[in-house]
């Protein structure tokens, strides 16, 4: 079962049905059933994507659903998904997108118009609500908000144009909060508000995703997505501080995978400062 928290919906990032690890789902299984470790095949199967937009989703990990990619091997279904947030902002109001410390906005989709007769309908005439085919992808939301922790954007014709005159519109944004990612050669800047300090949950310097920090890079530099190198120096340097800068570079973390263009990915939370007693 794939499940998301209250007020959030599932957004599948990637999924694989097979075996990439000899230890997962290995209890009571023979060696012969665990030795076939295939390269990752990220399943674009419709059965996975039917979970998108739902809060809860049940899906059987079986050959009858996904086929058999490696006969004789005991397989498992591994799914990475984000909790997608939804924000609906009525025309004339301001949309406020927010992520917690150590996370940044990544817009999944946005529309300024009207696709539903009930949303933002209070006090409006039927004539203003009748057109529910007013589809207008609001690309400016991603352009202005991606990569930021907080972003305000007004739901108005002056920002997005008027896709359906006479219709009372709303801005609907689906977004996820992703880990803060710093491309190799750049500097990660971890920040907490006054009275709170950084506490690193996990950090990796390497590459476990082919899409992150991929702009203008040759395929050869992005192919290795098994470059997992826990970056302990982030916690050592930054824990307990309100602000911390650390460079995503081989000189700091070493080179875990030569020839691969790497990035530093950090998950952290902001905690209340601890004061020693007198």
UniProtKB/TrEMBL annotation:
Coiled coil stretches, renumbered: none
SUEL-type lectin domain boundaries: 1-84, 89-178, 182-271
PROSITE patterns reported for this sequence: SUEL_LECTIN
InterPro entries: Lectin_gal-bd_dom (IPR000922), Lectin_gal-bd_sf (IPR043159)
Gene Ontology MF terms in the entry: carbohydrate binding
Repeat found in the keyword field: yes
Keywords in alphabetical order: Lectin, Repeat
Entry-linked Gene3D superfamilies: 2.60.120.740
Protein name (database record): SUEL-type lectin domain-containing protein
Phylogenetic lineage: Eukaryota, Metazoa, Chordata, Craniata, Vertebrata
């Amino acid at each position: 079962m794939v499940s998301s928290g209250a007020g959030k919906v599932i957004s599948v990032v990637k999924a694989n049905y097979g075996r990439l690890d000899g230890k997962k789902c290995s209890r009571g299984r023979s060696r012969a059933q665990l030795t076939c470790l295939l390269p990752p095949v990220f399943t674009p199967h419709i059965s996975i994507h039917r979970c998108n937009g739902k809060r809860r989703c049940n899906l059987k990990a079986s050959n009858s659903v996904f086929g058999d990619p490696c006969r004789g091997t005991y397989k498992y279904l591994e799914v990475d998904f984000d909790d997608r947030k939804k924000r609906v902002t009525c025309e004339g109001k301001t949309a406020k997108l927010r992520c917690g410390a150590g996370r940044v906005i990544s817009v999944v989709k946005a529309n300024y118009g009207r696709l539903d007769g009930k949303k933002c309908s209070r006090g409006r005439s039927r004539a203003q609500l009748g057109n529910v085919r007013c589809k207008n992808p609001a690309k400016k939301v991603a352009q202005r908000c991606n990569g930021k922790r907080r972003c305000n954007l007004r739901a108005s014709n002056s920002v997005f144009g008027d896709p359906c005159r006479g219709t009372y519109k709303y801005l609907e944004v689906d977004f996820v909060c992703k880990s803060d990612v710093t491309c190799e050669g750049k500097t990660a800047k971890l920040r907490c508000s006054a009275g709170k300090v950084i506490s690193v949950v996990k950090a990796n310097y390497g590459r476990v995703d082919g899409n992150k920090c991929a702009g203008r890079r040759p395929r050869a530099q992005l192919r290795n997505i098994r470059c997992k190198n826990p970056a302990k120096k982030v916690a050592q340097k930054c824990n307990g501080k309100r602000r911390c800068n650390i460079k995503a570079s081989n000189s700091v973390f070493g080179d875990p995978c030569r020839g691969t263009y790497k990035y530093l990915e950090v998950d952290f939370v902001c905690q209340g400062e601890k004061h020693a007693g007198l």
